[in-house]
Each structure stands twice: as structure tokens, then as C-alpha cells.
Amino acid sequence: MKLFFEGDMTAFLPGIGLLSQELGITVGEDGLRVQVEPSTGDLEVGLEQGKAYIRYGQKHQFFRGLGLLVQHGRSRESFHIREKQQFDTIGPMFDLSRNAVLTLDSFKFMLNKMALMGLNTVMLYLEDTYAISEEPYFGYMRGRYSQAELKEIDDYADQFGIEAFPSIQTLAHLEEFLKWEPVKHYKDTKGALLVGDDKTDQLVANMIEAASAPFRSRKLHVGMDEAEELGRGKYLDQNGYASRFDIMTAHLEKVLDIARGRGLKPMMWSDMFLKLASEGGSEYYDEETQIPEEMARRIPKDVDMVYWDYVHTEREDYESLIAKHRPLGCNLVFAGAVWVFNTFGVNYGLSLNASDTALQVCKKEGIREVYATMWGDDGMESNPFIALLGLQLYAEHAYSEEKPNWELLSERVKFCTGIEADAFLQLKYLDETPGSEPDNRKQSNPSKFLLYQDVLLGLFDKQIEGLEMSAHYAQVEKEIHSRRVNDAELDYLFDVPEKLCRVLKSKSEIGIELKRAYDAKDTDTLRRIATEVLPAIAEAVKELRSAHRTQWLRMFKPFGWEVIDIRYGGVVNRLDTASMRIFDYLEGRILQIEELEQDRLLYSTTNRFTNKGVGWCSYYYRMASPNVFFHVLNPF
Fold first, then answer.
1. In angstroms, rounded to a whole number, what is the distance separating the alpha carbons of residues 166 and 169?
2. Looking at the structure, do residues 448 and 415 belong to the same domain, yes or no?
3. Contact 268/224 with Cβ under 8 angstroms?
4. What is the pTM of this model?
5. Among 83, 114, 129, where does a domain finish?
6. In sequence order, what are the beta bridge partners of 130?
7. CATH code of the domain containing 6
8. Predicted pLDDT at 381
9. What is the mean pLDDT of residues 354-382?
10. CA 475/CA 459 separation, integer angstroms
11. Burial of 151 from C-beta contacts in 10 A (0-12 / 13-18 / 19+)
């Protein structure tokens, strides 16, 4: 499609050049004439009498308009689209701290997609994955971004009118930095800084300077969430007991002073204040929580509060929790989620429903700034690319007063990503299995724990006993395969899920079959499992690992892959040991297989018998073994 733009295009030509190949457009005088001009705020795109137009309120709107023009204008039939942006600021938050640090090319690819969607901001969650010249251990061997890399990301985003800015941690969630012995003087507890110390204050100043310097934006997210251990380690030894609220507000004031001195506009997660106001001092979503007047009075008002909520699906829950934030007296920002955390897939059942409800309430409540978080907890087996359908939902909400039409949303995601919405949706079935709650609203993650659990120990076998997991994963494998399009740029995203299903259709229930055969002294079945089934599973795991490695190195820096590599190695080695143990038993070298003598127990109270799905586990090392992976005498 050839286009010829009329109007002042100085600000847009670099971005057009970056998008031209994936849009399939060229620019020339003999192309479709497109009048480009500013509007009073709305976005208007259309084609009438053989001439097109894009009227934009802000720079990023032009690029959404360009996508809409190409999407609807190829037929040269007349059309008119008028959209009013519902949020001042909306975009993703990429977790770049849980091993999966996007390469610059991957980040730019995501920014291209965001530009077509019409998103106008991106938050980079950086715990220790940015360089601080004074701190060589900060992000050491973790794939940290250099100042030049962050500037390159910012420069690229700016060409589309997208505001990039950092989200750092200035209080807790710093385990990966504080683990190093040479920086122990900064440590209060395992993950929290020793606040009130001059060295810590200087560290925080260096953090803020290093993180903010590469960006045009004056926004800075200073974190300060989930700091329950604050003041309970070295701080307690040195200073005696002090309330967490007093410690936190004193530290916050120092952080804000540093930010103010650099002309920055800070925001922070709101959870600690609501937790401290709750009856037990730890509940974020407590319906009874009320912010005391004294607490509200002492909280600075020039820091935006980010209310995060990833789980609720009822309007009343969001309305109630937003109301509980109002007494804080700060500008309120909302952060939802596309659930890629702690899984190989995407929990679209929960994500789409929760996000849809949350965004409707945000519009009603006048919240003008919204983010879609994509956390990478426990090493990030998943990735943000398979979350593009969820991100498209946020984009369409941003330009629609009402709930977005699913048919139009599906057309948009196909245009922006090249992948059908239904293909993305298949990924939810990696975890939305027999036994799960509707739409997997309890966040079960069997795709992860059934891969990593040991076949001899069967820690999760009781959780899935009686469920047709093997048949489920065989069907999901077929469904994913049938929707793949080899020439689609993002088709490779489905290679790992498809191969994972190939593993799980055999591995998910093999522990149950193995235990049953052992108890029945069915030596023929035991021999078949040891000779044929377990080696075949091991080969399927190796194929999965190979595909996953290719995908990782295409998306992310290499640092962190070693963690996943080790996990796959553990699965394969334990399958080999299981075969050996069975052969030793069958050939009389041992009288029993002690691991199979043990009764199988439920892994946790999170199970289908309590209407909480098939189970959830947050940590690989708890999936792989009940035994000691590491032992810390002093966690602080």
C-alpha cells in the first residue's frame, strides 16, 4: 500500500519508517493521499472520495491512526472512525528483573506493536538490572541495562510519542543485590534496605540518578511495596523496635526529597499503607480496612499511589478498594495485569475478565493513568509477547467509552500482531485444565508444577488424581498446532506451548500410573514405564528445552537462561534415575522403591476439593522436591 502524506510530517517520518515494513506500506507521490492534521483531542481516521485523513490530538494517536488507516483502507472503500481517548496514560509494565531482560531488538519490537495499538507509555521494572557506576555488584551477571541501552530504548519510544520511564525499588525487593557479601552494609533483612543509614541514603540517591538519567520522562516509580520485613533485622538490632509506618514514612520522605531535587514526579505502590492500616497489619484487600486520619495526614501528597489489583472480577470490589485509597489524598493510578507469572502460558480467563472490569470502573471513577503489569516471578518461563492479546484489550479500552466489542478487538489483535485472537486464547488451557475453577480464577499453574514435579515423589499427584490431564494436554496440543501459521512473524511463540503439551500429555499422570503399578506389583507395566515411557518423556523434554532456548535467546539477554537450563536438566536426570530405580527393583537389586512406598498427600489446601482449582505453587524448588535445596541460617 502506497501512501502520500500531506501536512507537517516532521515528527512522524522516523516512526513511519520504523513501521513501514510490518505495515507493508511505502511512501510516494503516486500513493493514496493522506491529509494529516492536529485535532482538538479526538482521533479521527477515514477515507472519503479516494482521499484519506488522520486527525490526531497527540503524537502517539497518529500511529494508532496510521494502523487503522492501513487496516481499513486497503479495500479503498469509504470509512470513518472517531475515537476519544479515555485515559491520559496507558501502557504495559515489563518485568525486567526476574531473569528475562528483553534485548534491545525485542524491546523495539514491542514498542512497534504498542505504537500500532495506540498505547503511550511503558514502565520498565528494574530492581537491579540497570547499571550504577558506584556499585559494581548492582545487577552483576544479571543482564543489567547500561545507561546507553536505556537511552536507546527511550529514544526509540519517543519516535512514537511513547513515554518510557523506570520503576525501581528503593526499600524492599532487592534480594538479588543484597545477596552479595561485599554490600552487606546496605542490608536490613534478606530483601530490605537498612534505612536511616547514611550509606543507604547515598545508595538510594545513586539509584535514582542512574535510573532516571537516561530518560526524557520525569516520572519515576520508587516501588516500596511488600516491605513486610522492614525494620525487623539489622535495623532492629541497631535501633530497637519502631513501627513500620514510622520507619517507612521517614524513608519515603528522604526518597522524595532526592526525587524532588532532580525534578522528578514520583509514584509508589500503595499496598504497604493499606496493609499497615488493616487490623492484622498485612491485608491489602481487607474489606474492613479504613485509612486512619493520622496516617493520611502524615503521607506526602506529591507522590502518586499505584493501586495494583490482578484478581478481582466484580465491579463492587474495585469500587470499594478505590474508595479505600481516596483518604490517602494522593493522585491514584491503577495497575492491572496480564497473567504471565509463574506459568508457561497466559491465564487469559482471569486476565481478560479482571482487566475488563477494572478498566470500566477506572473510567467511571475518573482514574486517568493505567498500566498492565506482566510479572516474571520465579524465573519467567513465560514471556510478554504471548500477552499481546491482553495488551490489545487495554488499548481498545483506552479508545472506547464502553466495553470493547470482542469482534473488533479480535480484528485489531490480528492486524497488530499477525496472530488470531483464538490462537492466543489457546494458551490459557495450559493451566485451565480439568479441575480448575471457571476461567481459572484461582490461578492454578499445573503447566509448571506438572513439568517440574518428580515422577518418583509425585508431590502433586494427589492434586490431579482422577482428572483426565493426559487427554486434556493431548487435545490442547492439537488445538495449538491447528492454529499455527508458519509465515506469521510471531508463530514461533507457539512452539514452546505445543512442545510442552507434548511432554505433559505423557508426564502429567505418569506418576499416578507408576504408583498404581508398583502397589499392584504389576511388573509388566513397571518394565514398560522404565523401558519405553520415561525415556520417551525425556526425549520430549529435550525437544521442549531446545525450543525454549531458541525462543529465550531470541527475546532476552542470555543471563537467566541458565536457571531454566538447570531446571530442564533436573527433569531429564530425574527421569533417568526413575528408570534406574525401577530396573533395580525389577531385577532384585533392591527389595523396594522407597519413594513409591510413601502414600501420596495433597500438596496444599489450594485444591479442587476446596474450590480453589488444581493447585498453585510459586517456587520451582518446591515443585521439584520436598527436600533442602538451600538452607539459610540467618535469612536477614
1. 10
2. no
3. yes
4. 0.97
5. 83
6. 145
7. 3.30.160.230
8. 98
9. 98
10. 25
11. middle
